[in-house]
Amino acid sequence: MVVAWMRPLGVAIFLAALLFGSAPAVAQSSGSAHAQIDQAFVATHAAEADGGNVTSLVSTLNQAINLTEGADRLNATNPQGAASLYSQAYSLASDVIQKAPTVAAQGKAAVSASTTEFYGETVVLGALAVVTYFFTPMVFWRIWLRAHEGWRVKKV
User: Fold this and answer.
1) What is the 3-state secondary structure (H, E, C) of the chain?
2) Residue 93 vs residues 33, 97, 154: alpha-carbon distances, Å
3) Cβ 84 vs Cβ 63: under 8 Å
4) How many domains would you assign to the chain?
5) Each residue's pLDDT tens digit, 31-60
6) Residue 87: how many CB atoms within 10 A of its CB?
7) Would you say residue 154 lies in a domain?
8) Residue in 68, 83, 78 with CA at minimum distance from that of residue 28
9) Is residue 33 part of a domain?
10) Is residue 141 part of a domain?
11) Are 39 and 100 in contact (CB under 8 A)?
């Protein structure tokens, strides 16, 4: 008889332990996914500040944010599904963090090339200005003399 009333109590305790035991795990994965997204945002911001094209990073980061928002809504009704969404969001954010240094390096290279091109164009334009300044009068007078070589001047 003792065994008969202990069985439902044992099942209730097991279910309570399973429910309360999984809630901290979901909360932990929720916190780690949110923290990973925060780190990915900082990495994306740094890559953009270095001149990188962060369009793909932002798109991936938005997908991770949408997954965590869906997981936050789903957490109360389906903790296992929410944990899966948090895991997907964590992996997307990790992917953004891994790609951000490459994008930043590409941005730095593009900025450096652009700066070099700017200074090169400035030097060429300056040299052309100096050449024009010194040789324009000589060229002008040669052209003027050739155009007027048949003219005769008479005394009045």
Assistant:
1) CHHHHHHHHHHHHHHHHHHHHHHHHHHHHHHHHHHHHHHHHHHHHHHHHCCCCCHHHHHHHHHHHHHHHHHHHHCCCCHHHHHHHHHHHHHHHHHHHHHHHHHHHHHHHHHHHHHHHHHHHHHHHHHHHHHHHHHHHHHHHHHHHHHCCCCCCCCC
2) 8, 6, 91
3) no
4) 1
5) 788 999 999 999 999 999 999 999 999 999
6) 15
7) no
8) 83
9) yes
10) no
11) no
Query: What are the tens digits of pLDDT across the range 103-133?
Result: 999 999 999 999 999 999 999 999 999 999 9
Q: Is 156 a member of any domain?
A: no
Degrees to nearest 5, angle at CA 109 with 108 and 110:
90
Query: Taking Cα atoms as reference points, which of 85, 83, 90, 87 lies closest to residue 61?
Result: 90
Full residue range of the structural domain in which residue 43 is found: 2-118
Which pLDDT does position 135 carry in this prediction? 92
Q: Do residues 83 and 25 touch, judged by C-beta distance below 8 A?
A: yes
Token couple for 5: 């009333």
Using an 8 Å Cβ cutoff, are 104 and 52 in contact? yes
CATH number of domain containing 36: 1.20.140
- Total residue length of the chain: 156
